[in-house]
């Protein structure tokens, strides 16, 4: 039960931060969305909202890595398409209203804050995995690293544009250009 409450709160924080950012997501919002008992938020996150945001970033990072690792050994096109499809599902499920909890945290976090380090490591892990997968698919290391970075940056930017447009069209446009890089 206790871990279930924590997991529900983290899932709610991921969804709310992806849609609103950290600053516009309160403990009350997370409790209302998750249905967790009020006392449990302070039990699981005694250090406050930054601790909850860190858990949301880590959960998002782990989810993306897990999904992307399923593509180990895939072609370069499949690797990029897999990463893009992950985000396409987010945009479609939210009717263009949601993006990425990691980006939502990055935007609302000061450069010197400890939380930005968690964001940085998450993005680096994604780029690192994509680089490895693209190298395994046959791209030279420097090219694989450049395309991996461009893919993560392109998707994060596309998610912001999708939110502004309320449509998946910007993501599709960026995805097509990413595939041309291959």
Please tell me about this protein's structure.
The protein contains nine helices and no strands. The chain is mostly helical and 182 residues long. The chain has a single domain, classed as Tetracycline Repressor, domain 2 (Orthogonal Bundle), CATH 1.10.357.10. Helix 1 packs across helix 4. The radius of gyration is 17 Å and the shape is globular.
Strand content: under 5%
Query: What is the CATH third-level topology name?
Result: Tetracycline Repressor, domain 2
CATH superfamily: Tetracycline Repressor, domain 2
Task: Report the span from N to C terminus.
Answer: 47 Å
Q: In total, how many beta strands?
A: 0
Number of helices: 9
Roughly how many Å is the radius of gyration?
Answer: 17 Å
Poorly predicted ranges (pLDDT <50, ≥5 residues)? Answer: none
Helix content: over 70%
Oligomer: single chain
The largest pleated sheet is described as:
none
Helix and strand pattern: HHHHHHHHH
Overall pLDDT level = 95
What is the CATH-assigned architecture? Orthogonal Bundle
Which overall shape is indicated by the principal axes computed on the Cα atoms?
globular
CATH class: Mainly Alpha
* Derived structural class: mainly alpha
